[in-house]
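Thread: "does anyone have the structure for this chain?"

Original post by V.I.:
We have the sequence but no experimental structure in hand. Need at least a predicted one for the grant figures.
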Amino acid sequence: MDLGLTGRSALVCASTGGLGEAVARALAAEGARVAVSGRRGSRARAIAAQLPGAIGLEADLTTEDGPDRLADAATAGFGPIDVLVLNGPGPKPGSATGTTVADVDSAVASLVHPHVRLVARLLPAMRERGWGRILAIGSSGVAAPIPNLVLSNLGRAALAGYLKTLAGEVAADGVTVNLLLPGRIATDRVAALDAANAERSGRDVEAVRRAARAAIPAGRYGDPAEFGAAAAFLCGAPASYVTGTALRCDGGLVPAL
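Reply from O.Q.:
Generated one for you, tokens below.
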């Protein structure tokens, strides 16, 4: 299937590892010009050097001017951006009963504020051209809140509400807005969560992983490349009638349609 991404420009946030990197690589494989970005500038440039037509940008979206500086750098490199992939590191694990207002403010500041600012900067040009893709890398916690990840559940649900509202406002302009929700994909973030779970429960990490795999109908963790392929489809031309939706890539983990 031709995804119609050849020559399109894409900015992938937090793409120096994990799911962001997988999406950047998948888009580049489909012919898109990709801006790889993250706080590790040298890593962003190293990945970009492996991809045709890509650039590597150092950016910290949690700083006051981080989103604007990243938007400026990406448009300086490519011109107007066609595909914006929103992504960022997850907050610390924690329970609802142990959460403070400061924790909530921090989660919203990292998971909502930067993405709203990036959309505000890059969406107008998409609407003017009559084509654009906004895709957020979320979490299965949007569909079913994950125990001991209250801040992630809260922040990502807030972002999902914003994006769902946005999707209805810009669909007629040829811009789609979607979320892609990973389950347990084999990334460093999931490995860190497994380690935290093991420490909290007093089990060894492999026992935690066996229990996690047993809860997944597919019987395994996902491969980041599988997630990247799903993201590339949602960013492509054939998905032009898919908007305002949250697609799960979770091996059947969440027990709901």
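V.I.: this helps a lot. The mean pLDDT is 96.
O.Q.: and The beta strands are 9-12, 33-38, 55-58, 83-86, 132-137, 175-182, 246-249.
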